[in-house]
């Protein structure tokens, strides 16, 4: 437990240094270890117009997160995010770290960005661990349909090889 607390403190410093190194002025951020280890960590930071996501392994050669920009896409839904019960619940669940993507006239994908990707492709929001299919009803209300594809649908052999390779450092 003490090792995890120590690593969390180190990771927060490395993540903040990475944001400053890339001249990113953020309003908030969070870091979390990836699944089944305390060596590879993910971090997400929020700015006015985007999120910046990256991963860092204690075996990386450079003491910086490699950050990927993910543009915010919620401008068209601002009022609904404040009033609709489904969207408010999803925002609460994701602690406000999310991307909304319209699929067609009445369906959306809601990506929770907090826990990174299972397939380790952080520049593709569709690969984030948690995503939800949402249907837009008439009169601007929304219904959660299902969780959508996720880790349970992945090839675990490929996913764990990618995890091991990333833990090993870049």
Can you put this structure into words, describing what you see?
- This protein is α+β, with helices and mostly antiparallel strands and 170 residues long.
- The two termini are 26 Å apart.
- The protein has helices at residues 2-21, 78-83, 85-93, 156-167; strands spanning 28-33, 40-46, 50-57, 68-71, 98-104, 107-117, 128-137, 141-146.
- It folds into two domains: 2-69; 73-153, no CATH class.
- Strands 1-2-3-4 form a four-stranded antiparallel β-sheet, with helices on one face.
Measured between the Cα atoms of the first and last residue, the distance is 26 Å
Topology pattern, helix = H, strand = E: HEEEEHHEEEEH
Secondary-structure class: alpha+beta
The average pLDDT score comes to 85
Q: What is the overall shape?
A: globular
Major beta sheet, specifics?
4 strands, antiparallel
Low-confidence runs of at least 5 consecutive residues: none
* Quaternary structure annotation: single chain
Strand percentage, roughly? 25-35%
Total strand count, please? 8
Identify the strand order in the major beta sheet.
Answer: 1-2-3-4
Instruction: Figure out the total of helices.
Output: 4
Percentage of helical residues? 25-40%
Count of structural domains: 2
Whole-angstrom Rg: 17 Å
């Amino acid at each position: 437990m003490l090792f995890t607390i120590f690593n969390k403190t180190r990771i927060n410093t490395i993540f903040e240094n990475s944001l400053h190194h890339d001249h990113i002025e953020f309003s908030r951020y969070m870091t979390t270890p990836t699944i089944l280890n305390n060596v590879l960590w993910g971090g997400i930071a929020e700015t006015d117009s985007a999120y910046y996501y990256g991963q860092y392994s204690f075996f990386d050669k450079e003491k910086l997160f490699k950050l990927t920009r993910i543009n915010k896409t919620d401008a068209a839904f601002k009022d609904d995010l404040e009033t609709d019960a489904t969207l408010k619940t999803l925002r609460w669940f994701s602690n406000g770290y999310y991307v909304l993507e319209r699929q067609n006239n009445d369906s959306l994908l809601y990506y929770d960005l907090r826990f990174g990707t299972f397939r380790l492709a952080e520049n593709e929001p569709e690969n984030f661990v948690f995503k939800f299919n949402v249907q837009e009803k008439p009169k601007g209300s929304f219904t959660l349909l299902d969780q959508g594809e996720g880790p349970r649908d992945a090839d675990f052999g490929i996913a764990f090889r990618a995890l091991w390779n990333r833990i090993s450092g870049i």
